From TrEMBL, chain A:
GO CC entries: NatB complex
Family from the record: Belongs to the MDM20/NAA25 family.
Name used for this protein in its record: N-alpha-acetyltransferase 25, NatB auxiliary subunit
Transmembrane region(s): none
Species, as recorded: Dissophora globulifera
From TrEMBL, chain B:
Domain of life: Eukaryota
Domain N-acetyltransferase: 2-152
Protein name: N-terminal acetyltransferase
Keywords: Acyltransferase, Transferase
Lineage: Eukaryota, Fungi, Fungi incertae sedis, Mucoromycota, Mortierellomycotina
């Protein structure tokens, strides 16, 4: 609201309309107000806001620009404009507007603050610094000086370490002056000072002096958990060993005996001073042994794990530096298991130490545990112990040694243990996991092993039945869900996978880290609409980052939380430059292209396609940040062998090369869609595609021993697609140049017959690449089947457009069309080949559709699953109805994919 | 064997083992960052030696006069890491920070009346029921207990009372 009651009265109905979401009425009321008072900025700004809220961003922005020209200086107008521009992701214009307003009202501190904030939104550190200094000059508050210092620090942070950093030096001088005047008073101001000192080389002694000096004492810096940690780190760097050790001992004894990073610092104070000396005779070692065992003794009835792991860590270090200590470490590991074996995290606690001991000791460890614990699994504790033991046995490779029959026996054993554990959890609330859930997951891991070894898909089908069954008793166990999603994907059952994925409430920031589980190569399942909706909803996080994170950076300035500003900026940048964001973006482009099922619409779509974001240069690729979470899935596989997450990928993990391929393809197509002349740009695109394919190896055949640098992010089908596009792109180039030469009548013009021959040669090569093997139905339609089919449809969809462009080149660009008759015929031939390819897809899909009809599934696949199965879960007889239901569901998922795929294929037979 | 440290904005990229659990809600960016921007020392996390996030607590300081206190907004432990005393370590830190630098009179938290496990844990940590908030959770009819633990500044122990569960208040009365 404004400070003018009369104006307020006029605007009230507009605000009211907006508040209830009635933007149309809001616009009408604004128009009315503007009619009587055309220069009423606030009414115009509110109208822009109504446009923006009503989804008409372009109209809103046009209005904003109009208002900008008239340089408004009243706060309500500026605030409203800022709202509109911010939600459109435009930050720059507000800087000028606030600057202008402040200069018109130099006593208005609020406007000056807005000016600073508008710069902070755009990360304009230099501008911030200047404005903050002006703010301080005019309004005399210290906080503005700290803003200025922070801004300088941000400018200085990218200066390389071995260069003198003028900005840091300047910031430091200002800080020192403030400190001398006693004006550094808060923890956050102190932290800013420390950031500046530690951002320069070899300043740890000064930082330490600051922490231990007046300001450190005044702010009780070492009460803060981060500064306490930092102080010890600095003491270690300064080689003040005793002080550092005393500080860690005090924390571990009095505050938190479980604090691992302090335990590690304690060990630094023990080992670093005697590095190079004989550890055996060192007093430090004796002291450390006494101290850690004292810590362990002090633990009472509910012991913390820290002190006991500290003992293991200590003896491990002794083993590493003087050897001959494996037995001690092993004994400690066994003792630790006796104490904490009934805690779920025991496996994780010990596994790195176990790896360090080598295979022989690891096996001995397992043998001893088995000897001590036997097979007893009658209580919740015993079950956890048994599960931990089984994890260790898997991780040391005991399960990898089994043949498929032995593995299957173990699957059955685990399943029985899972079922035996259920009665103990009958009173657990719905949100909790059953005690034996990990048995079910481990059974699934074994079935995945068997699948990998035998190539049979039946183990995977069995795994889905067992995991789905386990979900009945643990509705929310996300570990079961994650592995289930992946197995369904391997089985080509997209609806089943997305059904499970959608129950996991994955949202906000998790879209960036976890959506790859469902969106990687999601177009392969043929269900383009569903694929797009998954991608669109995941993409919202990047818009949130644009609109929310800058505001949070401003909050940090507002509350003078200097320790968080760099962190927030890093967070913003990691999301902004997320690799997953770009991968998803390219997949969306593929799908949006495929949504246009007529050639003319596809051409129009390409012509409209914005290329600002379709970058592929090396610098751009290298600046992508991989935020994908691949470690959250449980994994007990031996170190050095692929994790379960890796093993259950239906295809190679997507990365920068893949991103480049699906950047080049639409860009080349776009150039062709415009029938644009061959220029540098186009030649670069084609050359980049050629170079990319030259080093590409299909993931399945990649070997690490290849001497040539290769990358294997692609499937064989993707490489084929790239090669075909390359052939036709080259054809376009040849033809375009020939037409241009012909038109100009230049002496360099090519003989039309020769052009036709070259075109034919390229298109024949493309035809050869297009040849496909018919798909045979083998009962299961795995991911690869769908991928091959959709990739063919996608390839032809591109070719339809490219062929049309080739023909249009002749019909619209060539002066003498008759000269290119033979070329045209070659194109026609190629088009016939494309049609034929689609026809063969269509034939295959029809056959597959017949094979996955419910009655065929029942009498075929289901029969095969059950007949003579060696899986107890399947044989038991009590699960038949469930197995039938799940099998039919998988069949139905295949059917939907096939139905959609067929529609897509038919629509492209031109 | 857990490192207890302040939560960083970039930890949001790796908190999935905690947040995939159905009882832990994932909020938008602003929610987490606004806490970090204002009370960075009341938002802490427990990590494994290999830097996996196991648990976190987020809190704020609020209230006026003798109501000035530390408030636990959310505390959560990933399923694999429960019953290890991680919550206790985090609460302990939050209480110390509420004492210094915030100088609060007490720490409080809300818990569903049906969540016996949590109530028992908080009781062991020194919290007692101060009042019952009627239908605290939106869209649900369940009541919540407001549990409090006095800090040194609360010399008269005003944040503790007998039979707190029988003091019923409406949700709007617990806003600060």
């Amino acid at each position: 609201m404004t400070s003018n009651p009369e104006l307020d009265k006029k605007l009230r109905p507009i605000y009211d309309a907006m508040e209830v979401g009635n933007y149309r009425e809001g616009i009408q009321l604004c128009n009315k107000a503007l009619k009587s008072q055309p220069d009423l900025h606030i009414a115009k700004a509110l109208k822009a806001l109504a446009f923006e809220r009503g989804g008409k961003t372009n109209e809103a922005l046009a209005l904003c620009e109009e208002i900008q020209w008239s340089k408004p200086t009243d706060e309500p107008t500026l605030r409203t404009l800022s709202l509109v521009l911010r939600s459109a992701g435009k930050y720059e214009p507000m800087i000028k507007l606030y600057e202008n307003a402040y200069k018109a009202h130099p006593k208005n501190e609020n406007l000056a603050n807005h000016w600073f904030m508008s710069l902070a939104r755009s990360l304009d550190f230099k501008g911030q610094q200047q404005v903050a200094l002006q703010l301080h000059k005019n309004f005399k508050k210290n906080s503005y000086l700290f803003w200025a210092i922070m801004s300088m620090t941000l400018q200085g942070q990218n200066v390389s370490a071995n260069q003198p950093n003028v900005l840091y030096q300047l910031a430091e001088r200002m800080m020192a002056k403030l400190n001398n005047e006693g004006k550094v008073e808060t923890l956050e101001e102190l932290q800013l000072y420390l950031i500046i000192l530690l951002g320069q080389q070899n300043r740890h002694v000064d930082a330490l002096a600051l922490l231990e000096g007046d300001v450190g004492v005044k702010t009780k810096a070492i009460e803060n958990v981060e500064l306490r940690h930092l102080r010890i780190q600095l003491l270690i760097q300064a080689e003040r060993w005793q002080d550092a050790r005393d500080a860690t001992v005090q924390i571990l004894k009095e505050i938190n005996s479980d604090d691992w990073r302090t335990i590690l610092q304690y060990f630094d104070t023990i080992f670093l001073p005697v590095a190079g000396a004989d550890l055996k005779t060192s007093d430090n070692l004796t002291e450390a042994r006494a101290f850690t065992s004292e810590l362990a003794k002090n633990e009472g009835k509910n012991p913390k794990r820290g002190p006991f792991l500290a003992q293991i860590e200590l003896e491990k270090r002794v083993q590493e530096s003087i050897g001959d200590n494996k037995d001690t470490v092993l004994a400690l590991l066994v003792a630790y298991f006796e104490k904490f074996g009934s805690k779920s995290c025991c496996f994780e606690d010990l596994s790195t130490y176990l790896e360090g001991l080598g295979q022989e000791s690891a096996l001995e460890f397992c043998r001893r545990l088995r000897e001590a614990s036997g097979e007893k699994a009658d209580t919740v504790k015993e079950i956890t112990i048994q599960i931990n033991l089984a994890r260790f046995e898997r991780s040391v490779g005991l399960q990898a040694k089994l043949n498929p029959t032995e593995s299957m026996a173990l699957v059955n054993k685990f399943w029985k243990l899972y079922e035996d554990a259920l009665p103990l959890g009958k009173d657990l609330s719905e949100t909790e996991r059953q005690y034996g859930d990990d048995y079910a997951i481990m059974a699934a891991h074994l079935l995945i092993d068997i699948h990998k070894e035998t190539k049979s898909y039946f183990p995977l089908l069995n795994a889905t039945f067992m995991l789905e069954h386990a979900l009945n008793a643990s509705k929310h166990n996300y570990q079961i869900k994650l592995v289930l999603v992946r197995i369904y994907e391997l089985l080509g059952a997209f609806s089943c996978a997305s059904g499970i994925y959608n129950t996991m409430s994955i949202k906000h920031i998790q879209h960036d880290t976890l959506s790859h589980f469902i969106t990687d190569r999601v177009s392969s399942y043929g269900m383009f609409t569903e694929a797009l909706s998954q991608l669109y909803s995941a993409h919202e996080i990047y818009h949130s980052n644009e609109s929310e994170t800058p505001e949070m950076i401003l909050q940090a300035y507002k509350y003078s939380t200097f320790s968080k500003i760099q962190e927030f900026i890093e967070f913003q940048s990691r999301l902004e430059n997320s690799l997953q964001k770009m991968i998803a973006d390219r997949e969306m482009i593929r799908l949006e292209f495929l949504r246009e099922d007529s050639v003319s619409r596809a051409v129009a779509w390409l012509q409209e396609l914005q290329i600002d974001n379709l970058k592929y240069d090396e610098a751009f690729c290298q600046a992508r940040v991989d935020n994908r979470d691949t470690s959250v899935m449980l994994n007990w596989n031996p170190k050095g062998s692929p994790s379960v997450e890796t093993l259950t990928r239906p295809s190679a993990q997507l990365g920068r090369h893949w991103m480049v391929l699906f950047t080049l393809v639409p860009r080349i197509l776009k150039h062709m869609a415009h029938l644009a002349a061959i220029d540098d740009q186009y030649e670069k695109l084609v050359a980049a595609l050629e170079a990319l394919l030259l080093t590409a190896t299909p993931a399945s055949t990649a070997t690490s021993s290849d001497s040539e640098p290769t990358h294997s992010e692609f499937t064989a089908e993707e490489i084929k697609l790239g090669k075909i596009v390359l052939k036709v792109a080259t054809t376009f180039q040849v033809l375009s140049l020939a037409i241009a030469a012909q038109n100009s009548g230049s002496p360099s013009k090519v003989d039309p017959a020769k052009t036709a021959a070259t075109v034919k040669e390229h298109l024949t090569a493309a035809t050869a690449l297009l040849k496909r093997e018919p798909v045979k139905s083998t009962g299961v339609l795995p991911w690869g089947t769908f991928h091959a089919l959709t990739m063919t449809v996608e390839t032809v969809a591109y070719l339809n457009v490219m062929n049309q462009c080739l023909q249009n080149l002749i019909s619209t660009k060539a002066h003498k069309k008759a000269a290119f008759k033979a070329t045209n015929a070659a194109i026609q031939d190629f088009m016939a080949q494309c049609r034929q390819t689609l026809q063969s897809v269509q034939t295959d899909v029809t056959a597959l559709r017949n094979a996955v009809k419910p009655d065929r599934i029942k009498n075929g696949l289901l029969y095969e699953i059950c007949d003579g199965s060696s899986v107890d879960y399947v044989r038991s007889g009590t699960h038949q109805a469930e197995i039938e239901e799940k099998t039919l569901k998988i069949g139905a998922s295949w059917m939907s994919s096939l139905v959609y795929l067929q529609q897509e294929a038919v629509a492209r037979m031109v | 064997m857990s490192s207890l440290r302040q939560f960083k904005a970039t930890d949001l990229f790796s908190f999935n083992a905690i947040n995939l659990d159905s009882l832990t809600e994932t909020y938008n960016i602003s929610f987490y960052l606004s806490y970090l921007a204002r009370w960075p020392d009341l938002f802490s996390v427990q990590c494994t030696p290999s830097s996996t996030l196991m648990a976190y607590v987020m809190g704020k300081a609020e209230g006026t006069g003798t109501d000035w206190h530390g408030h636990v907004t959310a505390i959560t432990v990933a399923p694999e890491y429960r019953r290890l005393g991680l919550a206790q370590g985090m609460m302990d830190l939050l209480e110390r920070v509420s004492e210094y630098p915030y100088d609060g009179y007490f720490v409080d938290l809300f818990v569903r009346c049906s969540n016996k496990v949590a109530i028992e844990m908080y009781t062991q940590l020194g919290y007692s029921i101060y009042r019952t908030v009627k239908e605290y959770y939106s869209y649900e009819t369940e009541n919540a207990y407001d549990m409090r633990k006095p800090l040194k500044r609360d010399v008269d122990r005003q944040s503790v009372r007998e039979n707190g569960e029988s003091f019923l208040v409406e949700p709007h009365e617990v806003q600060f």
